[in-house]
User: Fold these one by one.
Assistant:
Number 1:
Amino acid sequence: MPVTEKEILAALSRIQDPDFHKDIVTLGFVDHIAVRDSKVGFEIVLPMPLFPVKEKMREEAAGIVKGLSGVSMVDVKMKSEVTGHAATDRAAIPGVKNIVAIGSGKGGVGKSTVSANLAVGLAKYGAKVGLVDGDIYGPTIPIMMGARTEELRQRDGRIIPIEAHGVKFMSMGFLATGNQPLIWRGPMAHKAVQESLLNVDWGPLDYLIVDMPPGTGDVHLTLVQTVALVGAVIVSTPQDVGLTISMKTFRMFEQTKVHPLGIIENMSYHICSHCGEREEIFGHGMVAQESERLKVPFLGEIPLDIAIRKYADQGMPIVIADPEAPSAKAYLEIIERLAAQISIRNYYSKPIQIIEEPEPNPKTFTV
Amino acid sequence: MTNVQHTRGTPAIIKKQGNKTLLITWEDGHVSPYSFRYLRQNCPCAGCIDEWTSAKTLNPGSIPLDLEGLKVEPVGGYGLSFSFSDQHATGIYHFDYLREICPCELCRKR
């Protein structure tokens, strides 16, 4: 007797998703089950990019179904359909599923390097990714993406983002001409944020990463008022002084109901390029401790690695320049956890409906 | 993961009924009925509230009885803004604030 769809689903419900801590049938990941005699095929549709680690799930699913009586062959297709955030039913940027802010308490923690690597890394695993350099006062993303001199082109009055390493990006630095320093006050900063977010022809995106200026200010306020973010990530160094300030940035996001997706510890330790020894220059463990206290996910730690800086200066984020480097592997783990946190957030958050009923017209005219 | 405080200040359905009434159904099931005049009287913008003392500088009696709400817009993921018939539209009403000023009888007694 051929196996039934019900039996297949029952078997697959024994597989737990490691991020959601629920089984993949309850989560609705299993789709398109087809049975022909003793041959079974189905899809597992994940709400995040297909990271290499997901191969385990495919193998496990194939193995479990193969073990059912009446099954001789199993074909499992892994698919990715990144889920989108629905804070309200009116999206500010149509076609953009998830807007993620990357913030920090103070400058110099490597936020832009982290943002560039997260964006390029997500794209590497098949996601459609955009990156906004929101640091109006010190835009560095164009350098890290290897496209510092290009001029912006427009189509129908909208900015065409620049593409590099599979990522579409836009820098607020492009809006200022020449080598003039920016001395922008609130209203100008406000306009620049809106211009580089809303007036860009992004096309469909799974993730739009926004690299924020350090601290809390005009750009942050405009961002949280202009779009509904799926959440924010804070980049911190292990030093407590950096951390205390980072927490203020978290508070600001909290006050504007932006979900904390997690904390990344950057410059976590130094790997000596001569002997390979690990040195904890700024101390260790503070960020993980603090994130536990705050009940905010700890996304991981990135070492101080001269290669990260070297490749960044050459316009090649380390995740693609040297994917086998320990620091690139650290990035990959963080990217996986971040994508998981975003999909979990989307799974549990409900959209806010806004309904507008017109004013009832009491007067009707009959002639 | 969701605590009480969080669902209290999270709307599920925001309904503008004509130009006089706004109904918010919150995630915890509570329903807040606002008149747009009441919302205008409680505008939290810097022109209606003293930014340092938080004291109201707007005279609530100066708002005409027939004031209407023309438009409701979301502000990011944390609040709403309204365009009123007196041309005023600068207030950002944080969801927590809207819940705090809920005019229903139950909340007013508290």
Note: The two ends of chain B are 27 Å apart (CA to CA).
Number 2:
Amino acid sequence: MGRWGLLLPAAIFLALFYFYPLGSMLQISLARAETGLLGTLGSVFARPDLRKVFGFTVYQAALSTLATLALGLPGAYWLARFRFRGQALLRALTAVPFVLPTLVVAAGFSALLGPRGWINLGLMAALDLEAPPLALTQSLGAIVLAHVFYNTTIVLRLVGDFWSRLDPRLTAAARVLGASRGQAFRQVTLPLLAPAIGAAVLLVFIFDFTSFGVVLVLGGPRFATLETEIYRQTIYLFNLPTAAVLALAQLLCTLALTAVYARLSRQTAVPLNLRAARDTRRPLQSAGERLGAAAMVTVLVGLLVTPMLALALRSVARLEADRGQSGPVQPGLTLAYYRELGVNRRESLFYVPPVTAIWNSMSVAGATVVLALALGLPAAWALASASEAASGPSGMQLPAAALARSALARGDVGAAGGMIDSGNATGPSAGAGRRPAAGRGAALTALDALLMLPLGTSAVTLGLGFIVALDAPPLDLRASPALLPLAHSLVALPFVLRSLAPALRSIRPRLRQAAAVLGASPARVWREIDLPLVGRAVIVAATFAFTISLGEFGATAIIARPEYPTVPVVIYRFIGLPGALNYGQALALSTLLMLVCAGGLLAIERWRIADVGEF
Amino acid sequence: MPILEMVGLVKAYGGRRAVDDVSLALEAGEALALLGPSGSGKSTLLALITGLETPDAGDIRWEGRSLQGVPTHERGFGLMFQDYALFPHRDVGENVAFGLRHGQRLRRTRAQIERGVSEALALVGLAGFERRDVNTLSGGEQQRVALARALAPHPPLLMLDEPLGALDRALRERLLDEVRGILRRLGQTAIYVTHDQEEAFAVADRVAILRAGRVAQAGTPAEVYARPRSRFVAKFLGLHNILRGQVEQRNGQLTAVTPVGALPLAPGERAPAPGAAVSVVVRPEEVAAAVDGRGDLAGEVIEKSFRGSRNVVLLRVGPQELTVAFPAAQPLPAVGETLALRLGPGAVHVLPDGADD
């Protein structure tokens, strides 16, 4: 079985559960329109209101991405390069918001900034006001803030993890060669980080571009993006052709972005001798460094912890009147909202105790991890080894390598090794391999983009596609418990691949060669070298798959059966209802989900350090 | 009959031939050094033998059978990588055990593997290092682990790619002796790649000097050093006093008439007939200071440099500069003064391919 064979499971999966549903949906949607696809595209974008929706979508996504980078890059630097007390805790903490469902994030900001949130309630109590004085939610600022809160972790993880393993001696070498601190950063660190930063920017932008829950809850009706508009057109207006065209426009945008990124990443990636993060971190030394670290920790904790804290505290605080309750409210602590979760007050058949919903969510997430890794691992390996062959450097010594070695004759082994490996990319054979492989490189670019497609497809679109296509033979999965894991794996697969492929690609070819020379067959090389070395990436990938599944809302809201809801669906049911009890229950469930996610994440972090260790 | 034969090997990267029609053979138990500057194709040659690269033309035969189509992991050779390529996620023992566990030729029991590991580690002087983390080892220790890992499965052919390249000088000299001792003790058939002639001479029974993918000269170290064929080989071996001249018969002896004067050729030199243009090399160690001032040559001292056991002196003789070495204890004239030289009988050697630069 060649390397293309390894892509087969993922390809079949995509064909069945992505292209087929998407095709069915577009077909059905467009069948109602009389003017065909181009006519519909033209007619939809001739409408100023939809043009405005498109413009706002891009605007808020760009703004959110910039703001996320502005916080995430300095954060990545301090976390990657320095060693200070509480670092592991901070790192774990910063991961928590990202694993939270959009609805929990929205609930958190609502509990902080909303009309029923701490700030407004506090001001009302202090100034004895009748109504909330500040309209902090339902604004662009709230959307951007939530996106920053939500996505900073992507930058911290993707850029920070890579940065922490980048050999600091490369920068040291540049400094010794006469580069200033800034020059060394611009000419050595930044280019080497570029693929990681590019990946982060791409993911953050696409996340913001297709963001659903945050815009729906915190933006309100004034701020429609493509995603909420597709939802509105489909669910409320039943205008499937318009929804389909909007979905198509969204898809084309994200596809183009992904293709550009795939091209860029292959041009900039070089094999690096990654080092253990343990060896690259140093203690804070100067007062400036301490100040910077303190400022970074304060800002991160302030932004990331405050809404979570607001949410948790608000869920145990009785601050406003229950529905139908009269008289003054006795403010105080209460567990009423939590006790209420298990009570079927409405005696509805569809009412599911949140405990069951949590169980549902966990089992769906577990199945998603298994499925996404089973599909993603072979595919990532195929992609990584194919791109290695396409850029074709032999692992053996090349002139550039010898130069590096003689320059570093008295230096230590690690630094020389790093330069030698990056020398491979600039040696004569690197350029040589590229030309004959150009066709394969193009195929690879296309394939890479193809596997990223679900990421750029709105969750609402995916959900609708499932409903439309998978409810009749040949694929009737309406009653299947596999429906949610399938949908969630579709969303998670790009993340799994993006976590795995770069790590696989960065394994030094020399190690595989050494194993082969020592008698390990290709399968053994994979098991003994690649698998353990990407262990960390596998865990990151599994974490992604798990948390994405737990938090997935757009598709789930549409395809989950009423008697089999996941936690986000139940939260959405409660948050949409008036009254302190319902709001409290939504916050209580959000808090529970937050704790479950954080607990799972902490467990994984701990297990990662204990088992895989540093390398 | 040679155990390993390379026949007309060619390997090109994008039109540039890294290995260009190389034919070499290796007897069982022999240690061959591939010596050459960087980019001369030494490492590519190793990649071809191990199967990490496929030749564009030519064949490699092991015990008379072609290795074409035999994948790397089934060849059973040992290779010690230049930067060691130790597996960072495995401890020392697991690194050394790797080839014992995965070797195709023998299934080994756990006890056999453990014994193999401890034997290999003992061989390189790292007994008891089994559970150490490879990332915390010093450069010299890593080098020994890499050697132990390559040796442990008892490969019939061991290749070493610049094994001492990354080490500092003192360590290099010590480890060089150890590597040589180990190879000799095991009677190991080996190919040793280096750009350092001292290393090559110390380790190898035979050396092949490579230049731009071709074999410039092959032979025993003594042969190659005594009779370099070309200016390239002479210069690469550190023989920098290369003069152009013409062969003449003088006083019943063949001499080369050069810009610095008429130099008697070493006896037994297969020089071309009188009148032919030649390049000759003057060996610095065969040149002595003429105490009485009446030497074969005289020149002005331009530079003196102290090298521990000897002084290296740069002289200007006529239009030419010559480098000569003297014992450190010998008193020498100051810079700017004149020094007379006497040539020993084997001092002047004709380069047969002298026209080849």
Note: Chain A touches chain B through 48 residues (CB under 8 Å).
